[in-house]
Amino acid sequence: VEEVVSAGKRMDGRGLEDYRQIEVKTGVLEKAEGSAEVKIGRSWVMAGVKVGVGSPFEDTPEMGVLMCNAEFTPVAHPTFEPGPPDEESIELARVVDRGLRSAEILDFNKLILIPGKQVYLVYVDLYVLNYDGNLIDTSALAAIAALKKAVMPIYKVKGGEVEPSGEKEPLKVLKEPVAVTMVKIGDALIVDPSADEEEVMDLRLTITVDEEGNICTIQKSGSEGLTMDEIRTVSYTHLRAHETVLD
């Protein structure tokens, strides 16, 4: 892999800045408020949205809550084991979660029922069904696709108590943040890494940007660093890749 990438090519024939085929389907789960499945190449993630009512976070008592969880199903890869979340699934959930919340995709101030006590809770559950690299981009795209198609049950406050009204309305998504992941192998920076490329990567950098070009989050992993010239290259490459994913 390192030898091929150093020559400006990739094992699957792609250019260094090319994505694999992207497929998006919505409405794939009957009982979820919103759902989607996304495939990037052979990586496959399903997202389900559930909306409920509960207590707000202590540091944001007058705002609704958005939470992401990720599960690596054992059928997705031989190394994935059943059991509690490991570091990789926790990192995946947190990177997707931060990208969504930092972009302010929902008006959290309007998701309040009883200030400081009861708010809407929006859960995004991510299930990795097949792993072939770049789970962050696949999961982030599945999450936003599911949220865009989600409906939320309407609750009313009567006598200081929260009660379901039996009605639903579309969940209002204000932004469409897109995550683009690049990895560095040797001196080369490549977009949408496969599983084989992630095995030999020196570092991984994910930048989440909304449709207006605002950077929402940046996540780096790996012990290697980036020079200023490489950061400029990453920024330029990211803009082109971002347009590809949006298309």
Written account of the structure:
By secondary structure, the protein is an alpha+beta fold. It is 24% helix and 37% strand. Strands 1, 2, 3, 4, 5 and 6 form a six-stranded mixed β-sheet that branches. A four-stranded antiparallel β-sheet has the order 10-9-11-12, sandwiched between helices. Helix 2 packs across helix 3. The protein is elongated, with a radius of gyration of 19 Å.
What is the gist of this entry?
By secondary structure, the protein is α+β, with helices and mostly antiparallel strands. The protein is 24% helix and 37% strand.
Which helices and strands occur, and which strands form pairs?
Layout: H1 2-6, E1 22-26, E2 34-40, E3 43-54, E4 65-72, H2 87-102, E5 112-114, E6 118-130, H3 135-148, E7 151-158, E8 161-170, E9 178-185, E10 188-191, H4 195-199, E11 203-209, E12 215-221, H5 228-246
Parallel strand pairs: 4-6
Antiparallel strand pairs: 1-2, 2-3, 3-6, 5-6, 7-8, 9-10, 9-11, 11-12
Helix pairs in contact: 2-3
Sum up the structure in keywords.
six-stranded mixed β-sheet; alpha+beta; 12 strands; 24% helix; 5 helices; 247 residues; elongated
Report the order of strands and helices. HEEEEHEEHEEEEHEEH
User: What is the arithmetic mean of pLDDT?
Assistant: 90
Number of strands: 12
**Portion of residues within helices:** 10-25%
State the shape. elongated
Distance between the termini: 29 Å
Radius of gyration: 19 Å
**In terms of per-residue confidence, which ranges show pLDDT below 50 for 5 or more consecutive residues?**
none
Q: Tally the helices: what do you get?
A: 5
What is the percentage of strand-forming residues? 35-45%
Largest sheet: 6 strands, mixed
User: Which structural class do the helices and strands define?
Assistant: alpha+beta
